[in-house]
Amino acid sequence: MTAVGIDAIEIRTGRLKLDLPGTFAPAQGEDPEKYTKGLGLNASSFPDSYEDIVTMGANAAHRLMERKGLTPEDVGRIDVATESAFDNSKPVSTYVAGCLEQVFDGDFHHANKGERKFACVAATQAVDDAYNWIRAGRSRGKAAIVIATDTALYARDDPGEATQGAGAVAMLITEDPNLVEISAEQGYGSADETDFLKPQQQFPSVDGKRSMQVYLARMREAVEDFESVAGATHPDDYAYIPYHTPFPGMVRKAGLLGYRHMIRDTSVEDDLADEIGRQPRREAFDDDEAYEEAIREYVDALAETEHYQEWYAATVEPTLEISREVGNWYTGSVHIARASALRDAYEKDVDLEGQRMLVGSYGSGAQAEVHAETVREGWREEVEAMNVDEQLDRRYELSFEEYEEIHDAHNHDVDSDVEELTTPDSEFVFDGWGRMGERQYRYVE
Ligand code: CAA
């Protein structure tokens, strides 16, 4: 069977930066270490007043197509995943295609366009759709572009405000990909949950603590479901494990629980037994409460072991590096975690070809999805071409007053006229409203 997967990735960050420990925490009267140590975040990316989900998505896709030497004729499908859509009917992918037609010869009339919604897991679902479309033999040799794009803003003074972010990830899905092959095996954990939602409103209603429990419960189900088709997972099987990263502190919890699950009944559990005992088994306890307390104690002890810390530092920590600097990108989060892992391997000159990653996506509401990816021969060339570091470095750093204005500029309920803080350069920009209330875009040379 020919490999299908991700051929190339482009990341586009919002052009503004909010320093969380330095600027946001003092203004909110909070300890900066809540951000650096607790949530694991240094900064958030924000969109300038001329940026939105369309400009960020189109700018990422533009660079992707240019870099890969593609014309519209080579692309048979454009899907956008977002939680920040501004239209209940016309999909964001049509706006993106309209932008790209301003700069490429030809058009995308032949391309199937859609929009995927299931909170942050939607872009992984769109990658799946593209994978299935190619596998079904319906792609006529063309590639699919999947774009994850979000302005992940919360209402002012909502606890979620600490984890905001804005950016887009464009992925090219093809046969015989350069970057990673996606496994046919996948696992799901899906349930009707009310942890984070936006019922006809721009900013989310969130039950933050509950959302963290739901994330862990659905992720666990998805791993077990994955194992039912792919066999047991073992920590040594994966070079990296990129998770959906609403903030790195969440992944710290998921990584620890995942490790406990993977080592059960393995020689790693045996090796650790002298130091911290064996994992509690339900049958040894009279009630759930006592069992859960014993599990908590075991997990706390596991977190302190050298075994676990070395594994985490090598396999999970490197996936968080971009996220620490940009915050939550919702649909794009797990995809920047993968990019962060690949960048780490590139920087450390690791021979990654043929090694596997286990990718854990999650969307509130709620659904987790787990699949494996095998790194392909051309991965180095692809990672080398990404310019994410350059983009992060050139962000304009907001004062707290500017942050307040920019938050208002992106609040649909506030009528504000904020001057742009950066100067657009070779990119798509928001250019005002059309006669039917549509948003309009222009390419600035
Ligand atoms: N030094 C060190 N650590 C500190 C600290 C300090 N001075 N102050 C606080 N901390 C730690 C806390 O102990 C806590 O860590 P633990 O959970 O390990 O105990 C962490 O920093 C956060 O502190 P709080 O719990 O006090 O923070 P909070 O009450 O303000 O809210 C939050 C945190 C619930 C995550 C909130 O930011 C939120 O609602 N975020 C949005 C929802 C979200 O991201 N949920 C994640 C799962 S859902 C999902 O993944 C979908 C999605 O993308 C939204």
Automatic annotation (TrEMBL):
Organism annotation: Natronoarchaeum mannanilyticum
Family recorded in the similarity comment: Belongs to the thiolase-like superfamily. HMG-CoA synthase family.
Identification of the protein by name: Hydroxymethylglutaryl-CoA synthase
Ranges for domain Hydroxymethylglutaryl-coenzyme A synthase C-terminal: 195-411
Database matches in NCBIfam families: HMG_CoAsyn_Halo
Domain of life assignment: Archaea
Record-linked SUPFAM superfamilies: Thiolase-like
Record Gene3D superfamilies: 3.40.47.10
Domain called Hydroxymethylglutaryl-coenzyme A synthase N-terminal: residue spans: 4-175
Family annotation (InterPro entries): HMG-CoA_Synthase-like, HMG_CoA_synt_C_dom, HMG_CoA_synth_N, Thiolase-like
Keywords, sorted A to Z: Acyltransferase, Isoprene biosynthesis, Transferase
Gene Ontology terms: biological process: acetyl-CoA metabolic process; farnesyl diphosphate biosynthetic process, mevalonate pathway
A molecular-function term among this protein's GO annotations: hydroxymethylglutaryl-CoA synthase activity
One Pfam family linked to the record: HMG_CoA_synt_C
